[in-house]
Structure formats: structure tokens, C-alpha cells
Design goal:
The complex is a heterodimer of chains A (about 110) and B (about 110). Chain A is mostly beta strands. Chain A is about 0% helix and about 55% strand. Classes of the chains: A mainly beta (about 110), B mainly beta (about 110). Chains A and B meet through β6, β10 and β11 of A and β4, β5 and β10 of B.
Chain lengths: ~110, ~110
């Protein structure tokens, strides 16, 4: 069975702090894909990143970075120098075959 | 503009009154899917479609029907809605016939069943 666990339900930080959102996944498939999506207060789902199971390179995009570790089945997301506009719900998702399984999301609140 | 559209965006209905939420994409995508989002539960897949006339159940298909008669459209049908189907619904599409590609999401439909 495929499963994604985002243990942090809510996180609150002050602007300019760094914050890491945790994602742990379970799958027996050897080929799979991991995603992060952002859902701002306006409600739409915004794609952030896709990573396949054979590519363990970490990725950095501006203030965002992702750490993929197969050994611990984790795909963590770090926001450096957080900003108020980063306030949103963030979802980690696991894609295998035709299915996309989402975690329950982490609600991030960044206060000035 | 490449997009996934859903209609209506908001709907309040009564128990048992059949309804359809439409979903359309203009990107010629093979794969389409429906999700529901509930507080504390994240997004859960209802149905997906790999191509025209090919659909399959996701994790929470009970109480829903879908059809894929044309590549661009993937309506979600609630034959007899119940209050536990009150939720935020998202339609999504993807260029590949699998769940391993970025999915493009519609804006969501907020359904309330009283």
C-alpha cells in the first residue's frame, strides 16, 4: 500500500526563520515519484516539484530546497528565510502507477 | 491559456438530488482524475481515467460516478448526494497515462449537501 505521512499538522514561524516540512512515504514499488504542492489561502493547488525514485539529488530553487533520502523514505522541504507569502498548506504526494497519494498536509503560518 | 476548468465553483444542494460537476481541460491530456479534500484528511483520489472510455476507482469511489466520452471532459456525477459528500472537489489532468507526472489542477468546486 502507498502511504504518505506528514507528521506536522501546523507550523508557525516568524518571518525570516528557516522552516522544514517533513514528508515520509511508504511504497513497495521501485519506481515512484514524489511531489510537493502548495495550497495558498486562495485555495488553488500549485505544483512545486517532482522527483523520481532514481534521482536522489537534492534540489534548490531560490529559497526552496528539497532533501530526498531513499534510505529513510523521506522527501523533506525547507524554506529558507520564510516570508508571509509562504503561508499556505503544503502537501507531499507519492505517485505510483495511475495513483497519486497525498499526505494530510502541513499548514504553515508565517507571521511578520 | 492552458487550464483545467470546473463548474460550478460553488454548489449547495439537498440530499438525494442528483448533480454533476463538470471538468474540462484544453491541453489534450490523456490522464484525468478527481479528488476530494477534507479537513485533516488531505486530498483523496475518487476516480481516474487513463483515456477515453477507460476509468478506474481511486481510494474513495463510493457514491460517485464518472464518465470519459471525450478526451477533454471528465464529469463527476453524484446520483444521490449525502451530507458526507460535502467537500472541496478538485479535478486534475496530466499529459501522461500514469500518476507519475505533474498534475494540473482545476480551481476546485466547493459542494455542500444539506
Amino acid at each position: 500500500a502507498q502511504k504518505v505521512t506528514q507528521a506536522q499538522t501546523e507550523i508557525s514561524v516568524v518571518e525570516k526563520e528557516d522552516v522544514t516540512l517533513d514528508c515520509v512515504y511508504e511504497t513497495r514499488d521501485t519506481t515512484y515519484y514524489l511531489f510537493w504542492y502548495k495550497q495558498p489561502p486562495s485555495g488553488e493547488l500549485v505544483f512545486l516539484i517532482r522527483r523520481n525514485s532514481f534521482d536522489e539529488q537534492n534540489e534548490i530553487s531560490g529559497r526552496y530546497s528539497w532533501n530526498f533520502q531513499k534510505s529513510t523514505s523521506s522527501f523533506n522541504f525547507t524554506i529558507t528565510a520564510s516570508q508571509v507569502v509562504d503561508s499556505a498548506v503544503y502537501f507531499c504526494a507519492l505517485g505510483t502507477g495511475y495513483a497519486l497519494n497525498f499526505g494530510k498536509g502541513t499548514s504553515l503560518l508565517v507571521t511578520p | 491559456e492552458a487550464q483545467v476548468t470546473q463548474n460550478p465553483r460553488y454548489l449547495i444542494t439537498v440530499t438525494g438530488k442528483k448533480l454533476t460537476v463538470t471538468c474540462s481541460q484544453n491541453m489534450n491530456h490523456e490522464y484525468m482524475s478527481w479528488y476530494r479534500q477534507d479537513p485533516g484528511l488531505g486530498l483523496r483520489q475518487i476516480y481516474y481515467s487513463m483515456n477515453v472510455e477507460v476509468t478506474d476507482k481511486g481510494d474513495v469511489p463510493e457514491g460517485y460516478k464518472v464518465s470519459r466520452k471525450e478526451k477533454r471532459n471528465f464529469p463527476l456525477i453524484l446520483e444521490s448526494p449525502s451530507p458526507n459528500q460535502t467537500s472541496l472537489y478538485f479535478c486534475a489532468s496530466s499529459p501522461l497515462v500514469s500518476g507519475d507526472h505533474e498534475q494540473y489542477f482545476g480551481p476546485g468546486t466547493r459542494l455542500t449537501v444539506t
